[in-house]
Amino acid sequence: MENFNFCIGVNVLFGRDQIQNLPAALSEYGKKVLLVYGGGSIKKNGLYDSLMSLLGDYEVYVLSGVAPNPRIDSVREGVKLCRQYGIEVILAVGGGSVIDCSKAIAAAVYYDGDPWEMIAMQKPIEKALPIATVLTLAATGSEADTGGVISNPETKEKLGFGAPVLMPKVSVMDPTYTFSVPASQTAAGCADILSHLMEQYFVPASTYMGDLLVEAVMKTIIKYAPVAVCEPEDYEARAQIMWGSSIADNATLCNGNQLAVFGVHAMEHELSAHYDLTHGVGLAILTPRWMRHVMKKAPEVTIPRFAHFAKAVWGMEGDNENILAEQAADALEHFFRELQIPMSLNSVGIDDSRFEEMAEHAVQTGSLEYAWIGLEKEDVRGILEMCL
Question: How far apart, in Å, are the Cα atoms of 268 and each of 46, 256, 284, 308, 375?
């Protein structure tokens, strides 16, 4: 079991009507609030009005229009507002994109230079404005972790950043706020959650406890994702998925494991950077093909692990590990298809014209040599071609 430091500083307010406790929770961080949100759904469902009423004693400024793949322009605008109005705390209301954008703003306020330089050059982040979140889409786990990703349309890059100071101070998680999320976004969010779990499960070495914890959350998402897609106001399904999302990507489940870089995520970032593809859709398309590729590249390592995955998560039986490993990849792909996620790049309008460029950049920026099964440019291109 590896050494680890573990400090989760987020105050989670989980359940119905927990928004009522937000003003008191925010009070220790300041009275000048930057409210950040995306396309306006929070106005349609009444959440915006509720927040403005609850925060009547606060000085609230607004940054809206954050894109699903959050862009550096929104970060720059947020930094400008924070400096102009002396913002003391950022309130991110939305899913991972809004929260990631808010994290970048919180850090860039204290960076003497352009925010993209801070991200692209991996500048150390040692100070940030406090962040609070109200979660409206379960997917990335950004409401309870220390990292984020930002896209730059000009450079066709989507890059990650992170630091302990970016852990939200308060996160309101009311599953009812996800009732209105469309089925396609619900499905993509669940694919994202599963990918986070798999990136921490297929690693050089894992612990007995870590495996059981990750497997339990995988099985929970597999059980409840179809329910949430078909019955969007099923509270239990939404609650299980929301909590699964929040603990899937902040080391709660995998402390002590020998972790590796998130290789499938690095490849998907190329797709969403170039084509603005929904992140979870890209992950769903890539993951079964990645499994089949690394089975051939390193069978002695991957096949026993995928066979274990088949038994522990999918309930399969048998003694032939080669068959079980193939069945595991098939089961995952079938699950995504059942959720009506597009399962080819052609079906989402992506051809092979940029594969060479994307493969080279993924290796350069994604540290793919340190993945569970190290990947080179030819591997990435091959996986992308399998996805057509």
Answer: 34, 27, 9, 25, 14
**Buried b / exposed e along 80-111 (16+ C-beta atoms within 10 A):** ebbeeeebbbbbbbbbbbbbbbbbbbbbbbeb
The one-digit pLDDT tens for each residue of the chain (388 residues) are 787 777 788 999 999 999 999 999 999 999 999 999 998 889 989 999 999 999 999 999 999 999 999 999 999 999 999 999 999 999 999 999 999 999 999 999 999 999 999 999 999 999 999 999 999 999 999 999 999 999 999 999 999 999 999 999 999 999 999 999 999 999 999 999 999 999 999 999 999 999 999 999 999 999 999 999 999 999 999 999 999 999 999 889 999 999 999 999 999 999 999 999 999 999 999 999 999 999 999 999 999 999 999 999 999 999 999 999 999 999 999 999 999 999 999 999 999 999 999 999 999 999 999 999 999 999 999 999 999 9
DSSP conformation letters of 169-200: SEEEE-GGGGTTS-HHHHHHHHHHHHHHHHHH
Report the run of H or E that residue 32 belongs to, with start and end.
strand 32-36
Read off the tokens for 104: 């970048």
Q: Which of 336, 191, 196 is nearest to 262 (CA)?
A: 196
Q: Which two three-digit tokens encode residue 153? A: 């349309």
Largest pairwise CA distance in the chain: 65
Phi-psi region of 8 (alpha: psi -120 to 50; beta: other; left: phi over 0): beta
Query: Beta 147-152 vs 11-14: how paired, if at all?
Result: unpaired
Angle in degrees, 0-180, between the axes of helices 377-386 and 355-366, rounded to the nearest 10: 130
Please tell me the distance from the alpha carbon of residue 106 to that of residue 79, in angstroms, as a whole number: 8
Pairing, β 89-94 against β 59-63: unpaired
Candidates 95, 85, 78; CA nearest to 60 is 85
